[in-house]
Each structure stands twice: as structure tokens, then as C-alpha cells.
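Field log, afternoon session.

UNIT: design team B
ACTIVITY: writing a sequence onto a fixed backbone
BACKBONE:
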């Protein structure tokens, strides 16, 4: 079956994307690596020896970046509903994060130990219906925040993808009640056509 014109245009734009080309050249698994690298450069959120949970990790672009900063004394637990090729120093859990059994598997892996950073680049399956997709994205983000509050140590950091739209302001307000400092940023590697941004919440109360 031949590709549609819109699919062909997307593939062409993807292959010509400067961040995709740079990721291939530098050995990163995805263009998303540069979003985290930009935030790291500005806010120094990653340090040696940290314990980090990476939600929505596949193909591993963020975990790959984290591993380079936390080093051999750090710990990274990555989770995704899609398989991920192994990365040195990264423990991977396969499963859908909105399933209670998968959430429990993550908590069991932590063995009651708090973490320094919870980060989420999760996004829902896109239906094409703006209202449905917005609701699904919001539900995932809320779930990630709930888990972050449960897993983080005092003073810990939460970084998550968000989408501007219904519920965005309320979500940021909730984060501000739980963290000392909350920033909303759109890294240069985020596509200008996308409604995505990132909430960086530091200093878990």
C-alpha cells in the first residue's frame, strides 16, 4: 500500500529535521535527548549518584542522557509500554503506566527508597479528536504527578511533558502547591507546531 501524501510529507520532514540528523550523528536514540540536554544546561537538574525514574522512556533518549550525568553510582529506572533496547545502568519495566499492576511493579523495584528525580515524556495514543486527546494527555500527566509525589524525596524534582489546553493552568497550580519552584519551558528541540511544553518542578515540599 502506498503512503498518503501527508504521511510522505511527515517522513520527509522527519528525516530532514536538524535534531534528528544531529541525534544520529552524536549517537542519541531520539531528538528528545536535546530537550533534556537544554534543560540540564540551564537548570543543572542532573548530578552524579542520583536516583531517577523515567516514565515513557522508549526509545531511551532521556535515559541515555541521564546515564551520562548520574554515572555508575546513580540508578535509573525506565518504564514504557513499548520495548526498549537495553542501556547500561538502566533498569527497564515494560508496561502501560496507567495500569495499577505496572505502577506497583515500579514501586516494588524502588523497594521503598525515595528518588531524586521523576521525569515523564509520556504522551497518549493520538485519536485525532482534539478533546479526547487533550483529556488523555491530561490524565497521564496527573498520574505522573501523583506518582512523583509518592516517590520523590523532600527537595526532589519532577519534570513532565504537558500540552497547552484545558486543565493546563490547574495542573501548574497543583504543582506549585507541591514544589518550591515551578517553571514552564518549551525547549528549542520542541517542534514549533506542537502544543507541548515542559513543567520543571523543583523542591518537593
Amino acid at each position: 500500500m502506498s503512503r498518503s501524501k501527508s504521511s510522505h510529507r511527515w517522513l520527509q520532514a522527519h528525516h530532514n529535521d536538524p535534531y534528528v540528523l544531529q541525534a544520529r550523528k552524536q549517537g542519541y536514540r531520539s531528538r528528545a535527548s536535546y530537550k533534556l540536554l537544554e534543560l540540564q544546561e540551564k537548570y543543572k537538574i542532573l548530578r552524579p549518584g542520583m536516583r531517577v525514574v523515567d516514565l515513557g522512556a522508549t526509545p531511551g533518549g532521556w535515559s541515555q542522557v541521564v546515564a551520562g550525568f548520574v554515572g555508575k553510582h546513580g540508578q535509573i529506572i525506565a518504564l514504557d509500554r513499548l520495548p526498549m533496547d537495553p542501556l547500561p545502568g538502566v533498569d527497564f519495566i515494560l508496561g502501560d503506566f496507567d495500569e495499577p499492576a505496572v505502577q506497583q511493579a515500579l514501586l516494588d523495584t524502588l523497594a521503598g527508597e525515595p528518588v531524586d528525580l521523576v521525569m515523564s515524556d509520556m504522551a497518549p495514543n493520538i485519536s485525532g479528536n482534539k478533546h479526547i486527546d487533550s483529556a488523555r494527555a491530561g490524565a497521564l500527566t496527573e498520574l505522573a504527578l501523583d506518582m512523583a509525589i509518592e516517590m520523590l524525596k523532600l527537595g526532589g524534582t519532577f519534570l513532565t511533558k504537558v500540552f497547552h489546553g484545558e486543565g493546563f493552568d490547574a495542573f501548574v497550580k497543583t504543582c506549585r502547591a507541591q514544589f518550591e519552584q515551578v517553571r514552564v519551558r518549551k525547549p528549542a528541540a520542541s517542534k514549533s507546531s506542537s502544543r507541548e511544553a515542559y513543567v520543571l518542578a523543583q523542591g518537593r515540599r
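LOG NOTE: Confidence is low (pLDDT under 50) at residues 6-14.
NEXT ACTIVITY: expression trials, pending approval
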